[in-house]
Amino acid sequence: MLVILKRDDEEISRQAAQLIASAVRKKPALTLGLATGSTMVGVYKHLVGLHQQGSLDFSRVAHPQSFHHFMRENLFAHVNVDPGNVHIPDGTIRGNYEDYCASYEDAIRMAGGIDLQLLGIGRNGHIGFNEPTSSIGSRTRLKVLSQETMDDNSKSFAPGEESPRCAITMGIGTILEARKILLLAAGKSKSAAVAKSIEGPITSAVSASALQLHPDVTFIIDDDAASQLTQRAYYHRVLKMTAQLTPERLS
Ligand code: GLP
Fold first, then answer.
1. From the CB of 146, is ligand 1 less than 6 Å away?
2. Angle between the 9-26 and 38-52 helix axes, to the nearest 10 degrees?
């Protein structure tokens, strides 16, 4: 895994947007797995900026991801993505979850698999909504959310409005099949989860640690989120040499 250490949220967003933009330019019909959460807001702002300057075309890109309103507000309303190419799990379905989730997996397969999956990370190390103890082989399914995640999510809802207790999420096995993965983390509250994910043992107690099994993962993290990593000097050195020896990994 490649660990890119940045100063702050703004630098993370810019770097992630650059990597996503160059992937779209290399493959205009890219299947892009997107993520929600406050960490992503800056990334989408930069992508919208690039689109508005005329240097980024989303017309052929396909997106499987979640949280309709968030994605519309922050990205889809501002870029030229074809709504027919957007596949967001439907949080309003009731019953027959298994069939619905299987059809979501089929849609990913029919799109040729996910080329680039963008991820945030929960304070408890979740990716998507794969809460601790999620199987590393899990597929898209209905997942009961932890109290910690419900509390964090409640910030996105109006006061008094109930935060969801369950979510439909891609599984860890689904995520691991993406060809490339970008995980972004900012802030002190993420530092323990980040350290366990990158330097800890692979365990279902920390879902993001499963990313150690993936051959092409890049973590982009700010100083605060990186504060519990023990190998920071090494990550800086790797990054410098990657820029010299295999610059395509960074563009
Ligand atoms: C939610 C989302 C995750 C996201 C996490 C962190 O749980 N399902 O995709 O990574 O929140 O969100 P934030 O970036 O707001 O800390």
1. no
2. 50
